[in-house]
């Protein structure tokens, strides 16, 4: 049954509570969060029009274009878009009008780490969030509920509220924190069956009413006992805390993988034994070449910055160590490759299998592959890359961004660009290679005909499994030089 969503906001100038149907939601930001979350809301709430806007018109065109070339790759997403696009889900460049005609505005814009100014390298850059708030204030002609979907530092809602109230003429805005917990690669599954949905609002009558309205949306498919109502600050901090604790588990197991390599213990056996303790649990205990993705590093840095800001230096140092171990793991992996190739990789072809930061996504932000490739390039190697989903253009942009940020000269950039070749199949990427590094855990890598691939490589053929996905017994038949993490 289509539930009537009650618009029961007790806002300043209104004398009475009133009921009204929510007809339209606008989401600013058509990225990895905005696209999939709004597709699921549109699917589960056919009575609501959902408009996703972005100031990147190329992205909007792609969302409106071929289902095979959507800007976000997620299992299951294409089928939902097919059902709801043009029905009650729309992608548009018309930011102003879409905001104007919607009662609820979700902000799902990027919140990267600041690159310059105070807090550079740590604090969240709120430029895009602030731009959204200013835009909403500028174009709105009616009261609205603003939902923070982006991951934000604690007390951002306060700043958004200030911008809105100082830049609009007498309109009322309720700010709700509703952080997104989806994981790329399983986003649709996560959105369908969220462990919890967190909705934080002001503890005022109008704040509580606004929270209830957002609850009403989620209630269309999420059981009520999984919807958690909190105050705004708890909601904002819970998102940072969740990501920090997930990343901490990965760094914990990765730190132990180094110890396993020295002692003869096997990290997969250790993970299994540790994870069977019900107080610990088995998730996020898989050793790897290090975590990537747009969130973990940035959110921990944000937590470190917040802790420092509030004078909690020991807390800041504690969380910063999670990032240090992640860097240690990536550089340990690159060093191992160089050592195995007798300390010199100049002019040697090294293959990187997998560029995405994890399987089942085309997102490569902060992927371990980027830094590992750069280390090899700096040593003069020739890199060949294959990833089933990440486009050549993205791989080139990832490298260019790193080079520019590291202050490489124009000549260095030109020279390093020539050392990278990107292929659309694994055989071409592996042919003639000295070493194959598996960086992403794509299922297809596990299922390759490794006998054939190894035949195509230089001898001795080195395989470095940065994800522990390859069967050691099988591959040992074809090469003696097989290495995995923590074994
Ligand atoms: N990617 C994830 O797995 C994930 C999961 C949970 C939470 N988050 C958080 O959600 C937020 C969004 O992440 P994402 O991965 O979707 O980012 P993204 O970069 O994929 O998408 C953000 C989009 O916002 C658009 N944008 C920025 N400013 C705009 C403006 N003023 N007007 C219109 N469009 C604008 C950008 O063009 C971009 O397309 C971040 O805060 C992130 O930390 C991300």
Within CATH, the superfamily of the largest domain carries the name NAD(P)-binding Rossmann-like Domain
CATH topology annotation of the largest domain? Rossmann fold
- The order of strands across the largest sheet is 3-2-1-4-5-6
CATH classification, class level of the largest domain: Alpha Beta
- Average pLDDT value? 94
| Number of helical segments with 4 or more residues | 19
Separation of termini? 55 Å
Q: Could you describe the 3D structure shown?
A:
The chain has two domains: 2-222, 3-Layer(aba) Sandwich (Rossmann fold), CATH 3.40.50.720; 275-484, NAD(P)-binding Rossmann-like Domain (Rossmann fold, 3-Layer(aba) Sandwich), CATH 3.40.50.720. The chain is 44% helix and 13% strand. It has helices at residues 34-44, 57-64, 77-84, 95-100, 127-139, 156-167, 187-192, 205-218, 232-263, 267-275, 296-309, 313-340, 368-378, 392-405, 410-418, 426-430, 443-446, 450-455, 472-475; strands at 24-28, 49-53, 89-92, 104-107, 144-148, 173-177, 197-201, 227-231, 349-353, 382-386, 420-423, 435-438, 462-465, 481-484. The strands form three sheets. The protein has a six-stranded parallel beta sheet, sandwiched between helices. A six-stranded parallel beta sheet has the order 11-10-9-12-13-14. It has a two-stranded parallel ribbon with strand order 7-8. The model is unreliable at 1-19 (pLDDT under 50).
